[in-house]
């Protein structure tokens, strides 16, 4: 099951494609109920693992029967509590959606749905930001060649790691690299087929990849150099967009931290601190791409420049002032989308719960009739009706509770 309501650490592209949170008419029940059932059975997991298959099945069936009987006794209260909680969540995420829309409008973004779609596409198609698919093939091919060369160099340098690491770590490094080299070589062969490169032309491209990573001044193949320039531009732009997005998130966390209680403020402060580290790491990645193939050190931001990035209203040096950037659109698009999908799922759940109330009422009517017939038959045979009377009293009590709930009837 894809992480449902607390899966922010899971792969975003996988979530956007598979999680019910982003699926229309999914409500909030599938993942949530599965997680609740998992948590209820977690306590007996250590015992079940030592049972035979037959005993394990009987034990789990008995446990689920107990859980079902316990839920039946409280089903109306559970239904009403879930409705009230869902209504509270619906109101909360409606407020967040309106707040995200207002903040985006203040930043010059009038179409928040378009910004949300841009953020989704950026994560679903991460690493494929070249507009023309034909033009992207040489860029992807160069990226694969560089990756392949670096992996082979890592394997050759693995024994030297024994100076600062243990021999077992060196062995693991070399072993893990073998599989990656094989996978990359297979991808390179497929890319060469797409580009329709013959053996001689492919050898020239590979030679250029070795040249650029070794730092020699041998002239590069013109097509390779053009694709490399576009690859560098793409990666530098990606790093810059990521830095801007992180900075906006840090500023939002600091605003939240100002008016929060001690525990919430501490959580926001730690999150902002982690994101500052991510900003510096992303800047280092950007410097690597800027300097790649130049044979020297490029311009770097000073510590004061980096600290200045976190100030409200500041602009990074690579952006013109007053211009709405892709990072800003994706940041505000993500905030809006997160609130919108939660509100939509909560709204769907409210409708589902009203239908569940009607279904429960019909089911209780049927069960009451069945219990009445069974009780009459048992009395004819002079049998005990004690257990049937208990079940009948429970059904009548549940019907009375259901009539006084605040859950509206389905429209």
What does this structure look like?
The structure is a single chain. With 411 residues, this protein is mainly alpha-helical. The protein has three domains: 12-99 and 340-403, no CATH class; 133-220; 238-323. It contains 14 helices and no strands. Helix 7 (133-157) crosses helix 9 (199-214), helix 7 (133-157) packs across helix 10 (222-258) and helix 10 crosses helix 13. The radius of gyration is 30 Å and the shape is elongated. It starts with 11 loop residues before the first helix and ends in an 8-residue tail after the last helix. Residues 1-9 and 127-131 have low confidence and may be disordered.
Features of the shown structure:
mainly alpha, 3 domains, about 400 residues
Helix content: over 70%
User: Number of folding domains?
Assistant: 3
Mean pLDDT figure: 82
Structural class designation: mainly alpha
**What's the total helix number?**
14
Low-confidence stretches: 1-9, 127-131
Rg, Å, rounded: 30 Å
Report the β-strand fraction as a percent range. Answer: under 5%
Mass-distribution shape: elongated
Element-by-element helix/strand order: HHHHHHHHHHHHHH
Distance between the termini: 33 Å
Give the strand tally: 0
- Report the sheet with the most strands, covering strand number, pairing sense and barrel closure: none
Coiled coil: 69-96, 236-263
Keywords: Coiled coil
InterPro entries: KDZ
